[in-house]
Fold these 4 entries.
Entry 1:
Amino acid sequence: DAKTTQPTSMDCAEGRAANLPCNHSTISGNEYVYWYRQIHSQGPQYIIHGLKNNETNEMASLIITEDRKSSTLILPHATLRDTAVYYCIVRVAMTTDSWGKFQFGAGTQVVVTP
Amino acid sequence: DAGVTQSPTHLIKTRGQQVTLRCSPKSGHDTVSWYQQALGQGPQFIFQYYEEEERQRGNFPDRFSGHQFPNYSSELNVNALLLGDSALYLCASSLGRRNTEAFFGQGTRLTVV
């Protein structure tokens, strides 16, 4: 599985957009990009995922570069409750030969300040 | 709709003992995966069950074993506990071979003394 590189930490002002980068330069064509977040001592929470197109849901937007070697998670209006560790994960597609486990890295600690 | 539920929430065991952790997947999900998260680190994949069979396994010793029942619930068993097994154990459920999200439970905090 491809590995990801994320900044160790980021600060963001409440009400502003938070842009979280992720590098996955060795990603393969059959690998998806997933984002999860984990608030202290809770289970990881799914945010969004995509293969090659940009995606948006009620929580966030995912922008994947055309070469798919990097992506950005955008939280449009950060709140204090968005303070968490954010994980960018590259996951092999589920097929008849693959079961697509999630390989977590260290993630980015995001702190949203008033 | 209850999400993924895990029991117990906290557990203290003595070195050398055995422990069983339990997981009920989200309604409609048939695949269960287990992860170990040491303090300050990201979750590490232990194994995954589908149709009551272990489908893939991470880099964990045979002391870690599991089971999936016909109702899709699952157990994680750890034998001969070591101090280093102290961690948050997370269960995640998903739907078969779909490229969709997995939902995680709140975890079981295991402390080995």
Note: The first strand of chain A starts at residue 9 and ends at 13.
Entry 2:
Amino acid sequence: NAGVTQTPKFRVLKTGQSMTLLCAQDMNHEYMYWYRQDPGMGLRLIHYSVGEGTTAKGEVPDGYNVSRLKKQNFLLGLESAAPSQTSVYFCASRLIRVTGELFFGEGSRLTVL
Amino acid sequence: AQTVTQSQPEMSVQEAETVTLSCTYDTSENNYYLFWYKQPPSRQMILVIRQEAYKQQNATENRFSVNFQKAAKSFSLKISDSQLGDTAMYFCAFGETSGSRLTFGEGTQLTVNP
């Protein structure tokens, strides 16, 4: 049981390049989330999904797109990377909203030069 | 919108002593959950403790306990008998029972000194 897996773990991009972060969970969770973590700012929600085929914007969605074509996968895309998107990205999932507990991936460190 | 505030960016404590981390939140909801997550240097986020707002009794998990003051919208974490392995960033988080999202505070970096 792998839990929540993020790939890649590290990536360096040049300004303007595109990339996709993949999040996969094997716990049959309905809810999935993408957060970014920056020093002094905690975790901020980028986008989330409440089920297969659904997505919604969080606090800081600009510059990112997401897709949830399969229940177990949640993809985060950067179409044209900017230095302001240098951050550590965390994917998380949870079964249903009532229980509340989030299960996190190990994070992906992205640097945009 | 809900907000979560952790007013202590950094704290330190001596091994075996007790430390309390503060968290306040703002909401108009009556039913919600509160959480403390720990993030050690490995970066992995680990759930420490959870409190349901409708429960008056404060949650306890071994050396970790909370002081939940609903009227004051305060949710502090007490760590007793601090251990070196408790060194980590600690995040307070809030989630509505009827909602889909968790809102996190800015984090408190705790260092346990030998």
Note: The CA atoms of residues 46 and 60 of chain A lie 5 Å apart.
Entry 3:
Amino acid sequence: KQEVTQIPAALSVPEGENLVLNCSFTDSAIYNLQWFRQDPGKGLTSLLLIQSSQREQTSGRLNASLDKSSGRSTLYIAASQPGDSATYLCAVEYGNKLVFGAGTILRVKS
Amino acid sequence: EAGVAQSPRYKIIEKRQSVAFWCNPISGHATLYWYQQILGQGPKLLIQFQNNGVVDDSQLPKDRFSAERLKGVDSTLKIQPAKLEDSAVYLCASSHSGNTIYFGEGSWLTVV
């Protein structure tokens, strides 16, 4: 069964701290992996997409890594800001299907 | 570029009533998805269309849920009759040839 797990479920950090969100998946035969951001009452916004042949992707203060062999991905957020507060979702693509984790709720305190 | 449009944004209905949600994907996107997101969980794929054909509807409760995309553009998701456990956000998304998936802001359903 294809399952995606995200740890921690919730995280609260002071502004300026660097942080790591974790994602693990049971089936390593992935097509790609995406990290999404979801603000309260809003839809999902794609942050980073890592193809199965890639090891990492970077966008601004965000860096996502992928280790297919161990079934893990991490999202690194540098110098966190209150505006980063949101739910972060990891989604693994198998064929044409996205399987989501339950998300990590991030709160950055000013 | 206009995003994925969904309506209505919010709906409250009584159990056993019916409801329909509409989605207009980004222009030119052949693939359209409907996801169900229950509070505290990640989105779960209900149905995926490629143009007007169904690619995957394995997790769609077909006894009460139906979806169509007749002209290969916009789509409608219907629930009849609704149950309490159908309370969720229904997210529509679209993509072009397997690239990044773009989500709408969702239709929030409360069944009382």
Note: The two ends of chain A are 41 Å apart (CA to CA).
Entry 4:
Amino acid sequence: SSELTQDPAVSVSLGQTVRITCQGDILRNFYASWFQQKTGQAPLLVIFVKDNRPSGIPGRFSGSNSGDTASLTITGAQAEDEADYYCCSRDSSGNHYVFGSGTKVTVL
Amino acid sequence: VQLVESGGGLVQPGGSVRLSCAASGFTFSTYWMTWVRQAPGKGLEWVANIKQDGSEKYYVDSVKGRFTISRDNAGNSLFLQMNNLRLDDTAVYYCAREWAASYFDYWGRGTLVTVSS
């Protein structure tokens, strides 16, 4: 299967830590990337190739992989981190991409 | 790096539209490029991508035979020709740059295509 499963929504208190997971068999073969999307904006790459951050992405964002699950962790969540988060990976063919269903993060 | 999409609008079911993406700030001809769409209130869906020289193109099953991705390296532009449009093609269409065949590092702001009678 080339599906990527994410929890629909999670909430985190300001300054606390939240982990968002992405599960799929294809993650045993391909790394996940992670995108943040705020309302009305284009997606923004926050993590690529397991645990790399593009320039300008705060260090509170980190990624990890274990078996068929990729995780995005926000350590010390800030109000501006409230957004939808999507994982993405190659599919089983290796030629296409597939996105997870997205996780809405609410910062309380 | 800048990616600017254009060409969206209202189109009737069965109609056609051609999206464009103007690229600047990088050597366009050396990157794979991708289209991703997002239906209103829904998640992201990868649509199609194209190799640097246009020799390889891939599509999500739902658009195969209806959409055609192409590029003009001399003009630093990416295109998506969308034919036989359906109601469920209504979405914001984003162009994005691919890096290392693994992820999308830069995105445009998107252009909205609305299919409605």
Note: The two ends of chain A are 35 Å apart (CA to CA).
